[in-house]
Amino acid sequence: MSDPAAPSSVPPEQPGASAATPEPPVISVETTGLPSNLAACLACIFSLVGGIVFLVLEKKDKFVRFHAMQAVVLGGVAVVFYVALEFISWIVSHIAFLGGLLVLLLNLVGMLVGLAYVALIVVTAVKAFAGKEWEIPYLGKIARDQLAGRVPTP
Questions:
Q1: Residue stretches of the chain with pLDDT short of 70
Q2: What is the pLDDT of residue 150?
């Protein structure tokens, strides 16, 4: 039998201390350290800039990379559309008599496209947060082709 007064080789445990100290999580340089659905959602919300940031930061997660590339494509299309719309509005504004009316019409088209853009951002962000890989018609295929290194087909 063991003597209770004899010293033991195992030190007594401190109250509240665990036997093994947990190691801090290792965050790889190739990932963002965020859950996939949250990273994809943020890429969708911040569209062009967020997509570029997550494409640069995330090297492994195909779900995040797809949503980031889709956000870049959507943001790029929006920028090209609005630059073209401004250029056309500038040209049309120099037309006598009808110019003002045409500019108002172009502004209305711009607002409708802006509402569609916001709706697409909301839908893609909600789907990404839910963990679903939803493709924007036409643009999703372009994003997949870009990630695969293929030339997109029309």
A1: 1-30, 151-154
A2: 74
How far is residue 115's CA from residue 119's CA, in Å, rounded to a whole number? 6
Separation CA 60–CA 70 (nearest Å): 16
Total Cβ atoms within 10 A of residue 113: 15
Q: 39: which residues sit within 8 A by CB, 6+ positions away? A: 32, 54, 58, 61, 64
pLDDT (0 to 100) of residue 99: 84
Q: How far apart are CA 67 and CA 35, in angstroms?
A: 14
How many whole angstroms separate alpha carbon 72 and alpha carbon 44? 9
Distances in whole angstroms, Cα of residue 64 to Cα of each of 19, 36, 45, 73: 37, 6, 13, 14
DSSP 96: T
From residue 46, alpha-carbon distances to 25, 28, 41, 71, 123 in Å are 27, 23, 9, 8, 13
Cα–Cα distance between 82 and 110 in angstroms, integer?
7
Q: How many Å apart are CA 116 and CA 110, to the nearest integer?
A: 10
